[in-house]
Specification:
Largest sheet: 7 strands, parallel
Number of helices: 9
Number of strands: 28
Strand order of the largest sheet: 19-20-18-22-24-25-26
Oligomer: single chain
Strand content: 15-25%
Distance between the termini: 65 Å
Structural class: alpha/beta
Shape: globular
Helix content: 10-25%
């Protein structure tokens, strides 16, 4: 029998909404999927379509997730199949998003969700059917890729020297949007319909005596448990041709904190959003505190995968049979979306994201994103966050340059480069003056936007390792200052390269075990 295997990756075209829908006709009954032998990992279910031409089966990921990663439904030529990731989705008729009801194909579904999942078959009313089902143990998908930026400079950020309002003559043709600094001094984003109008306005504004600064609103880009054995960054046994022990000493750290009282620490992930529906994220993602600055909504849905990947490294719930283990078991993630489904955004939204994170109680902010130039507005937002005792962590950049991208280059930000499983600098990782730490950043597995686990490489993956440990220090001792946390991270790091601080490895590779033991 001919069939086509449907696999999923970031190359899958984004849908207009997170879920596709099917018609709302209800089946006459719902049957429980019979147990599938984990020894043979295969079972065939049979039945008869009801009067509406449907047959519906229910199953739970937890029944299989301890020993395998995916389930495959081999639909035949005579009927089609759809899967719903939760009971809520089934009631709302929201099909698992990265395929529609497919005829003559094998649907491969990851065990990423808790609760009930639904399989719905459609065929000829009264006809019988046979559906082979297999359990699959799949490795993480290959590295995610981020598209090059195509954003144009049609927007400005302006700050006045004195409270007041910009003269209309200086802002002709612009949409004016405030940036919510608390200093009392007006800071605005000006959006123009063309680059020409933006450039002309910039010239006028810089000539005004009441303008402290006027700058382009720069483009920003992302820097791209059954799977636990693939997490070499946590426990490196030499897998994937790595160097044994070239990890963040996660296992030793876990043993140490088991006897400690950990308090919840809020961490803001300023990125592409987060898919909060996965079992590993249950109770960990504060969707009520998040915000989507791209769509101007409270729902920070991830259509790219980058933000979910970062969040998984920080806070995925460990030892629950699902997926992977995050580093801080007491981290709460505030999802702040400033990058679109291509991983692109604007500096003004990063500024808004930082201010939003501080307002909502974040103790650590992760910025796995880069812009190539300095920004006064970004500097002010970072300084404001630092004044509120917040640790800011950013990726150094992925251009193999001897200079850091912003915001990592700012002195108030912990700049993080990437290392390989052999404890060497990743070839793509930016280095140079201002680099603070390095952390694992090559072939790191975590969640993406469709429930799959994917490898990804970049300083974007290194930064959340540091963010997670910084938040863990606050969880151990909330009275720590941001400066104390940064000092502990640097002094506990494993010295690599030249002895002492150097511009290739900074103060060294992150060591979670030594960091938590330094908290007194």
């Amino acid at each position: 029998m001919h069939k086509t295997l449907i696999c999923f990756s970031l190359l899958t075209a984004s849908l207009s909404s997170p879920f596709s829908t099917v018609d709302a006709a209800s089946p006459s009954s719902v049957k429980t999927l019979p147990a599938i032998s984990l020894k043979t990992k295969q079972r065939t279910v049979t039945g008869t379509f009801d009067a509406s031409g449907k047959a519906t089966w229910v199953f739970e990921s937890k029944d299989y997730a301890k020993e395998t990663t995916h389930i495959e439904f081999d639909a035949g030529r005579s009927f089609s199949a759809s899967v719903f990731a939760s009971q809520t989705d089934y009631i709302k008729r929201q099909v698992y998003p990265y395929y529609y009801a497919v005829k003559d194909a094998a649907l491969i579904f990851p065990f990423s969700w808790s609760g009930k999942q639904y399989l719905e078959l459609k065929g000829t009313p009264g006809a019988t059917y046979k559906l082979p089902i297999h359990l699959r143990s799949l490795t993480p998908l290959q590295p995610m890729k981020t598209a090059a930026s195509t954003a144009k400079s049609t927007s400005l950020i302006v700050k006045l020297k004195h409270p007041g309002s910009l003269k209309q003559s200086l802002t002709a043709g612009a949409e004016r949007l405030p940036l919510p600094f608390t200093s009392g001094t007006a800071v605005e984003q000006l959006k123009f319909p063309s680059e020409r109008l933006a450039a002309a306005a910039l010239k006028r504004l810089r000539a005004s005596s009441n303008v402290a600064y006027a700058e382009y609103d720069l483009p920003v880009q992302s820097a791209g448990d059954t799977f636990r054995r693939y997490q070499w960054s946590l426990t490196n046994t030499g897998q994937q041709n790595g160097k044994k022990g070239a990890d963040i000493q996660f296992t030793a750290m876990q043993k140490y904190i088991q006897t400690k009282t950990l308090r919840t620490t809020r961490v803001a992930v300023i990125d592409t959003g987060i898919n909060a529906t996965y079992a590993d994220f249950s109770g960990r993602i504060r969707t009520d505190l998040g915000y989507d600055f791209i769509r101007k909504t409270k729902t920070s849905w991830d259509e790219n995968g980058h933000g979910s990947h970062v969040a998984g490294i920080i806070a995925a719930t460990g030892n629950n049979a699902f997926g992977i283990s995050g580093i801080n078991p007491q981290a709460e993630i505030i999802p702040i979306r400033v990058l679109n489904n291509r991983g692109e955004g604007r500096n003004s939204d990063v500024v808004r994201g930082i201010l939003h994170a501080v307002k909502n109680g974040a103790k650590v902010i992760n910025m796995s994103l880069v812009l190539s130039e300095s920004s006064k507005a970004l500097e002010e937002a970072v300084a404001y966050a630092k004044s509120k005792n917040v640790v800011l962590v950013a990726a150094s950049g992925n251009k193999a340059k001897s200079s850091l991208n912003y915001p990592a280059r700012l002195a108030s930000v912990v700049a993080v480069g990437a290392t390989t499983s052999k404890d060497t600098r990743a070839s793509f990782s930016n280095y140079g003056k201002g680099l603070d730490l390095v952390a694992p950043g090559v072939m790191i597995p975590s969640y993406i936007h469709d429930g799959e686990i994917a490898y990804s490489s970049g300083t974007s993956m290194a930064a959340p390792h540091v963010t997670a440990v910084a938040s863990l220090l606050f969880s151990l001792k909330p009275s720590l200052t941001a400066k104390q946390v940064e000092t502990i991270l640097k002094q506990s790091a494993v010295d690599l390269g030249a002895k002492g601080y150097d511009q290739t490895y900074g103060y060294g590779r992150l060591n979670a075990n030594q960091a938590v033991r330094a908290v007194k």
